[in-house]
Design goal:
The chain is an alpha+beta fold. It has 13 helices and 16 strands. The strands form 6 sheets. The chain has a 4-stranded antiparallel sheet, covered by helices on one side. Strands 12-11-13-14 form a 4-stranded antiparallel sheet. The longest helix has about 30 residues. It is elongated, with a radius of gyration of 28 Å.
Length: about 450
């Protein structure tokens, strides 16, 4: 329950900030071009609002609605989800949206998307300024990678170190690396000190990302980080820094191999209905080998822990205040490119199933409060919100932009009645997508 509340709070804070910034973009350009804004709301307020106030001598009412599906600014003289063509059945006023030239209306409509993208770039810049950039370079993962059956059929081998994809250097282990590998024609790896080319067939990033075991993961050194008191390993005399060499006569060359051997023992014991499994472990300490025998507990845990990639050299990049901005812009643009590139998978059968709603979005936030991770996820969501809103779908900013571009090119303005009908169609599509996304979340929760 505590985990749910922490994630829910982070999600609510993040989305609230993004909605305010987005609607603030529309508000800013509307006021810049002297267009009247009658309402500025966080969340929607059908029938009633949780809070509202209108400053003295102000034309704008500010408030908080009860339906947390976004927010809106009500711009005078504009057909949108708050106003129909019937509401505009009066003489045009100079302070109305419809009275302004097309280029000004265009800026008002892209204001929200622009502000969300700029916010993401600013957050990324401040993340780099505050925390820097810390990662383990692929070339420093000296044990190499572990590949699943699909990857081995392509030509990869355990221990390969990824070097480049179509001559573009691969630097770190992340989704960008996986995307580059799956889209490449030739991937170069270091194998036994030699550079080897692996020729890639057509493969979907979506399929690869769902592989279990993973398509590729780093091989972790088989060195014990810590031992849990009272568990079999501790009682057998294993200590921090010991190197694990074999389990029940089977050699292990990595932590991955150790976990696989223990999983096999667990499955074997469960199949035989045994509450414990016998383990014979060979380890080395200061170059001296020793063999110990033990039994796992009822959870088949021997009580050793590993801290991921920390046995490898860590690359740490630090940025000054002014240095952080070009680096943040590069990071934001690269994130946007990756997201846009992956959108093609949404229109596949498997991609449609992977679409998620609020549950999926909330799950990307950490289980414990972590400001670093919170701001990373907020920047990512800001980029997603910007891109989704600029799609040429009626009811989204991109739909209005599409009609405005049509007006600029043809010098013919769509009628208010047409805009109203397009708005209804767009809202229907958006609500259908919202229902589908959250239905997928429900299915994942139940099954």
């Amino acid at each position: 329950m505590e985990t749910f509340l922490i994630r829910a709070l982070q999600l609510m804070m993040s989305l609230s900030l993004l909605v305010i910034i987005h609607e603030g973009g529309h508000f800013f350009f509307a006021k810049l071009f002297k267009v009247r804004v009658t309402k500025f709301y966080l969340f929607f307020d059908p029938w009633f609002s949780l809070f509202k106030f209108k400053p003295k001598n102000s034309e704008t009412e500010y408030g908080v609605g009860w339906l947390p599906l976004g927010g809106y600014v009500q711009i005078a003289g504009m057909v949108d989800e708050t106003q129909s063509s019937e509401d505009l059945n009066h003489p045009m006023e100079e302070w109305e949206f419809r009275a302004k030239p097309a280029w000004q209306r265009l800026f008002i409509m892209i204001g929200g998307v622009l502000m969300n993208f700029l916010l993401a770039l600013f957050i990324y810049s401040m993340i780099l300024f505050k925390w820097g950039d810390e990662y383990v370079a692929l070339q420093d993962m000296t044990y190499g990678m572990e590949f699943n059956e699909r990857a081995e059929e392509i030509g990869f081998r355990d221990g390969d170190i990824l070097l480049s994809a179509d001559d573009t250097p691969l630097t770190r282990f992340d989704v960008d690396m996986l995307r580059a590998v799956t889209e490449a024609r030739v991937v170069k790896v270091s194998r036994d000190g030699q550079e080897v080319e692996v020729f890639m067939p057509e493969v979907s990033l979506l399929d690869v990302a769902k592989d279990n075991p993973p398509f590729v993961e780093p091989l972790i050194p088989n060195v014990v980080d810590s031992v849990i008191a009272g568990k079999p390993m501790a009682e057998a005399g294993v200590r921090q820094g010991d190197v694990l060499l074999a389990v029940n006569g089977k050699e292990i060359g990595s932590w991955n191999s150790f976990l696989a051997q223990m999983a096999a023992l667990r499955e074997s014991a469960e199949a035989e209905g045994k509450p414990v499994a016998d383990v014979t472990l060979v380890y080395a300490r200061d170059g001296v080998r020793d063999t110990v025998a033990m039994q796992t507990d009822t959870l088949y845990q021997v009580g050793v822990m590993k801290n991921g990639l920390m046995d490898y050299k860590v690359t740490k990049l630090e940025y000054g205040f002014f240095e952080s901005f070009p680096a943040g812009v590069a990071l934001g643009v690269n994130t946007l490119k990756g997201y846009v590139n992956d959108m093609k998978y949404v229109f596949t059968k498997e991609g449609a199933k992977s679409v998620g709603g609020f549950g999926t979005i909330g799950s990307i936030f950490p289980k414990v409060w972590d400001w670093h991770r919170f701001w990373e996820m907020t920047a990512l969501l800001s980029i997603i919100l910007a891109f989704m809103n600029i799609l040429p779908i009626p009811a989204l900013d991109g739909g209005h932009v599409l009609f405005l571009l049509y007006e600029i090119i043809t010098r013919r303005k769509p009628s208010d009645k047409f805009m109203e009908r397009a708005q209804v169609v767009g809202m229907f599509l958006l609500f259908a997508l919202l229902i589908w996304a959250n239905f997928n979340d429900l299915l994942r929760f139940l099954f």
